[in-house]
Amino acid sequence: MIADFLPGVSISVSIDDRPLREYAADTPVSGSQHAGNTTTAYIEASPDANFKIDYAFLTAYPFRDDDILIRTFIDGEKVCRWFYDYTRLRQGLRTSLGDINSGGLRRKLKFAPLDKTEARPATNAKDTISELGEIRIAIYRCRKSPLQAAPTPVTPTKQAVPANAPSKHLVALEVSEKALKGRAISCRAGLGDAVPVPVSTSTMSRPATVVEYPYGDQPIATYRFLYRSHRDLQIEQIIERSPTPPPLEERDVDTLTVEEARELAKRLKARQAMHKVKPEVKGEKRSSAVISISDDEHDDLEADADVSFTSAQSCRKKVKVNDDVEVVDLS
């Protein structure tokens, strides 16, 4: 992502070293007085895929005489704070964040399914999930303060940390469906399996760099990545829904796969069988309309030659009494 208001800076999210495609978003930045310095884009998150955040400061960056501070937030949680002085910026700077080190363990960043519940949302649910599904990077123009915290003595850690030790970062939470308020979010950011790393044997602490803000303490640029699954992007109409494929009967036979051709043959065979059955059923209906007459009734009809049927369906009888009077039985 490259913002028009800050040339020379590129921030992106990648999977397998391939930057994810970005979809422009017109999402307003509510409650911010610096919305003009914020750019937002949607990206597609692949479930269980590791991801990285890539930062690049090129020679076109206009403030190379000042230091910079980079703060990165994932789902509202600050995961790192980086300081670089102006000498690094003049040479050009490229770096990335793909894992988090904590307590002697390294864990890679990854996308994971979001656990949902039908329970009522907690009282602080709004604060917890307001930035769910969001990666935010804020860049500050600053200068290193001449007053820095002095290192303090520490006791080196010698005890090995178990690989299954819980992480304090990006802890999985169960989110209420009602708290989402219709937002299409089905994934979250999490951490992969822990890998032990060498424990520091330093006897002195490394305090964070103290900075000053001569141009104001607000970020000069904020980059927001709203990560969603493919289905979520379709629901929010960020990308088009997959078109419904045409029926096999309307497809060109040369484009059908072997399985599709077999399915089409089954359908045609079933239709042919239905066409053969229908005439037989109609014939049975016509034959069932014939009136059966018992032997006694047949004898009576032969005895009275003046009795006749006008129709097999109406079963109306015309009985001729004499030459002048004719009685019609309507029963």
TrEMBL record:
InterPro entries hit by this protein: DUF7918 (IPR057678)
The protein's matches in Pfam families, at most eight in alphabetical order, are given as: DUF7918 (PF25534)
What lineage does UniProt assign to this protein's organism? Answer: Eukaryota, Fungi, Dikarya, Ascomycota, Pezizomycotina
Q: What is the recorded name of this protein? A: DUF7918 domain-containing protein
Q: Where is the DUF7918 domain?
A: 8-242
